[in-house]
């Protein structure tokens, strides 16, 4: 017969007191380290750009950076939700194409602009819902389900039109890209924002609040940590997973509005590969693709790093445009290797 | 305790999985203010009955009454809302979130600005202090805690909803004696407050320490429900395994005498073998036909040392001589080629491959050793599989069944077969009997003894000191990642001897041997 | 008789549960649609002078060839629990290398062989880089190959200076446009690759090893499975096969289009693998299934064009195929069917009883 005798460790009630050591505190902060690194590199790029090319740290360059990348920031926020749960959404680029082509056609067909804009956002929500239902209720893997949505949206966009659809010059939708001067600098050096930038900022703030201050947001993190645990802990896993794909789709719809209003036209090939840019932004910003760890603000920085890189390449003039994707790939590689090193160190510290 | 109507009553519950009847018309009752233990071998249906109650599994037949009302829960959350909280066998928390958050997830205190973290943390601290965990830093990631403390955090979490029924599925398997004692104090307190506690454990001692009543299951069927006072150990065990005690004894594997005299050149000699952060430099010597026990508390460095010997982790100091020759064991592949095999304590993640069949699991290591370009023929595979399924008495002896459909004990036997098939000279077994039933345990112990008799050197690691003492020729006692002592086994050595060695060393703590 | 019927029913169950079966059904359906719109769709012509077969089916086979090649490599990668997003980019690199090299050569068969060797060598090396990032550095396959996907197309553009390089070499062009036994060389080679890989994987223990890694990489490492080596191998093989596909894609027109060659073909390959019943989570895999998946995608592409629908709308039809096949695989839909069958059986029984 087997009898267990477990030797006592001592008379202390409960496990030995463990005061948080310095390593522990560092361990707790390590999740934020990739994000901090992204921020440092962003600042470094600005300093480098200013030193080498000049005219980077000035109102119009920085506001253009925001204006030109607000759609990417919005996409990256949506993908942050998805990636935090360990999922992926490949459809956002194609959703933008379908949403903007449909929106422009509706507006030109005489729909009230507000209604057309609402439709653009809703198209995103519905396509996100399609992905979410496939994933959550039919057990399709996120990669495949969102690939299907991507194909669907791209195909539908192409069925609507295969030529650039121009928004009428007097369309109210264009007002969403109207430049509002905040600071009137000398010559063209003005600090301007657009309603698109405001939308991006509002969305970022809302996302931070949702992720850190609501049960929905905490469930997102819990699912990323362990979906099985989250289920057994009694959290609303199904609803949350469905929700994040709707969030991602909706934000893709918003990004479509922001982008279309700025460009004034839409085409079925708009947004090809943007899902990869957005994923890259999220990863550069320090969110782990396996889920459970990362920050919305990191993704914003990631999007700005990519945007600034394009500015610097243009400014340099000596870098051939072919090199852009190689550099993007390189930056991405550096960041994931950095994350890898941190993860390894954390594992060895916590045993 | 008696008189009150049962808070949970399950009648005629049946559940079938593909090919298996997991529960067959089982009845179960749970009263307020009692600790009711579920006993049975692995695969007897203990976990299934819990999952049936909480709605994780759908029941095919039968009815469940909670507080007199017929209920069918749709899952843990649903059951929780009805006052039934569950702590599962494996820690089911999120390692990426903070301790405080894990306790409160889904029950956060909310204000007008969303979650009020201050109040939430206060509530978490309150619950944790109930379990004597007030020293924990709420903001630390859960993943930085040991498994044992994580288990206690999981129990704290269950208490947040102030449940009327608390289900603890093997909560003690990763706790040490003090932690268990502490947990029992809390369980008694809750019981006295009227909470009904459903408890599952493999440790007989604990059953007698804490239970008021036991229900015994065997092969998915109910054997009976007994007040613990009316059931002595022998009867309990024979009810669990369905054999009388004499038969059980004959299965016993006790190596009555430890007369092994190490002679000649050791099979393996390691000097200063260590790895920063996990294992202090240690010397180990092993002879053919010898069983070397590694004893110590969880986290004492037993597993870490074993992994270094197998090359599962790379040592950063020390030298290994194998059969007199200096050898570099840098990977499991290298170790297997040197006829060393290692069975991990983590059966679920590092042992079995759930979706492969028994046959594939069994031949995997042999095949890996031969290289993929020299496949074992079907006939060779069949021979190996038949041999080990028979020899180790694996049930069911169906080679084509996916591994996930076997009980824990039988999975462990298949794993043992996997390593034996590689014909090792040195076999390292890390907790080969943890979490498996009495019968399978005895069979595995017998197999170890038989191996040593055949000249295989065995490193045997177990949390059950008596098992280590019974099987080993020599025992290395470990603490804090280093070797404390090395004992020649003999009639004078008992589990208490080892406890004393560990306790004596703990100068800073007052050792209090039982 | 009832015994036979129940055996047949059981048999039907396993077939119906096999996803590749639905792939075949889909192919047949698509062909049927084409036949309806043009009854002579399936006819195959034979040209006495050139000894070539011609017809829509032959076109489909030719179009399927590059997908089949990369799908086979993808299938092995997916079995280990990985994914290779870079195959399209590796195709264009192989194409760019071969066109640049041939551009400055004379057009002899020797040149063609040398070029082929260099292009395939580079493709394999890029695949090996993926393999090293995954197995040694320990990055996630999605990210490692995403980096290669981004960088690869850039590398191709750098090689050609951003131009769509054109070259002349008859032997090289024959690879893509030639016929043997009346069938396109490309297709025969794709079949040869499929058969070779399938034999290699199933006759050796490679299949078991790859599945073990895909199911549980930690456990298989402790069981002595050489995870690193095998991962390096499958990513290299995937790179090599993508290189071959890239060479064929460019040889057929003897031009590399740096922005279009192999573009989004990684998605087709992944789809082919998934349609074939291999889970992206890794583990059990089916090369035969991937072949059916590849044929289905090629048939779909050709059908859309044949029916006069703009090619840019093809993705929508692919989406329909994915959704339908996914739903057929889904537990929820299956149990719905089971439920309905059970209801029908019950009502029949009741009818008999009454």
UniProtKB/TrEMBL annotation, chain A:
<feature type="transmembrane region" description="Helical">
    <location>
        <begin position="295"/>
        <end position="313"/>
    </location>
</feature>
<feature type="transmembrane region" description="Helical">
    <location>
        <begin position="191"/>
        <end position="211"/>
    </location>
</feature>
<feature type="transmembrane region" description="Helical">
    <location>
        <begin position="325"/>
        <end position="343"/>
    </location>
</feature>
<keyword id="KW-1133">Transmembrane helix</keyword>
<dbReference type="GO" id="GO:0022857">
    <property type="term" value="F:transmembrane transporter activity"/>
</dbReference>
<feature type="transmembrane region" description="Helical">
    <location>
        <begin position="242"/>
        <end position="260"/>
    </location>
</feature>
<keyword id="KW-0472">Membrane</keyword>
<feature type="transmembrane region" description="Helical">
    <location>
        <begin position="65"/>
        <end position="84"/>
    </location>
</feature>
<keyword id="KW-1003">Cell membrane</keyword>
<keyword id="KW-0812">Transmembrane</keyword>
<dbReference type="Pfam" id="PF02653">
    <property type="entry name" value="BPD_transp_2"/>
</dbReference>
<feature type="transmembrane region" description="Helical">
    <location>
        <begin position="114"/>
        <end position="137"/>
    </location>
</feature>
<dbReference type="GO" id="GO:0005886">
    <property type="term" value="C:plasma membrane"/>
</dbReference>
<feature type="transmembrane region" description="Helical">
    <location>
        <begin position="90"/>
        <end position="107"/>
    </location>
</feature>
<feature type="transmembrane region" description="Helical">
    <location>
        <begin position="32"/>
        <end position="53"/>
    </location>
</feature>
Automatic annotation (TrEMBL), chain B:
<dbReference type="InterPro" id="IPR050107">
    <property type="entry name" value="ABC_carbohydrate_import_ATPase"/>
</dbReference>
<dbReference type="Pfam" id="PF00005">
    <property type="entry name" value="ABC_tran"/>
</dbReference>
<feature type="domain" description="ABC transporter">
    <location>
        <begin position="262"/>
        <end position="505"/>
    </location>
</feature>
<dbReference type="InterPro" id="IPR003439">
    <property type="entry name" value="ABC_transporter-like_ATP-bd"/>
</dbReference>
<dbReference type="InterPro" id="IPR017871">
    <property type="entry name" value="ABC_transporter-like_CS"/>
</dbReference>
<keyword id="KW-0067">ATP-binding</keyword>
<dbReference type="InterPro" id="IPR003593">
    <property type="entry name" value="AAA+_ATPase"/>
</dbReference>
<keyword id="KW-0547">Nucleotide-binding</keyword>
<protein>
    <submittedName>
        <fullName>Sugar ABC transporter ATP-binding protein</fullName>
    </submittedName>
</protein>
<feature type="domain" description="ABC transporter">
    <location>
        <begin position="8"/>
        <end position="244"/>
    </location>
</feature>
<dbReference type="GO" id="GO:0005524">
    <property type="term" value="F:ATP binding"/>
</dbReference>
<dbReference type="InterPro" id="IPR027417">
    <property type="entry name" value="P-loop_NTPase"/>
</dbReference>
<dbReference type="GO" id="GO:0016887">
    <property type="term" value="F:ATP hydrolysis activity"/>
</dbReference>
<keyword id="KW-0677">Repeat</keyword>
<keyword id="KW-0813">Transport</keyword>
From TrEMBL, chain C:
<protein>
    <submittedName>
        <fullName>Sugar ABC transporter permease</fullName>
    </submittedName>
</protein>
<dbReference type="InterPro" id="IPR001851">
    <property type="entry name" value="ABC_transp_permease"/>
</dbReference>
<keyword id="KW-1133">Transmembrane helix</keyword>
<dbReference type="Pfam" id="PF02653">
    <property type="entry name" value="BPD_transp_2"/>
</dbReference>
<keyword id="KW-0472">Membrane</keyword>
<dbReference type="GO" id="GO:0022857">
    <property type="term" value="F:transmembrane transporter activity"/>
</dbReference>
<dbReference type="GO" id="GO:0005886">
    <property type="term" value="C:plasma membrane"/>
</dbReference>
<feature type="transmembrane region" description="Helical">
    <location>
        <begin position="230"/>
        <end position="249"/>
    </location>
</feature>
<feature type="transmembrane region" description="Helical">
    <location>
        <begin position="269"/>
        <end position="297"/>
    </location>
</feature>
<keyword id="KW-0812">Transmembrane</keyword>
<feature type="transmembrane region" description="Helical">
    <location>
        <begin position="20"/>
        <end position="36"/>
    </location>
</feature>
<feature type="transmembrane region" description="Helical">
    <location>
        <begin position="179"/>
        <end position="201"/>
    </location>
</feature>
<feature type="transmembrane region" description="Helical">
    <location>
        <begin position="114"/>
        <end position="139"/>
    </location>
</feature>
<feature type="transmembrane region" description="Helical">
    <location>
        <begin position="57"/>
        <end position="79"/>
    </location>
</feature>
<feature type="transmembrane region" description="Helical">
    <location>
        <begin position="304"/>
        <end position="328"/>
    </location>
</feature>
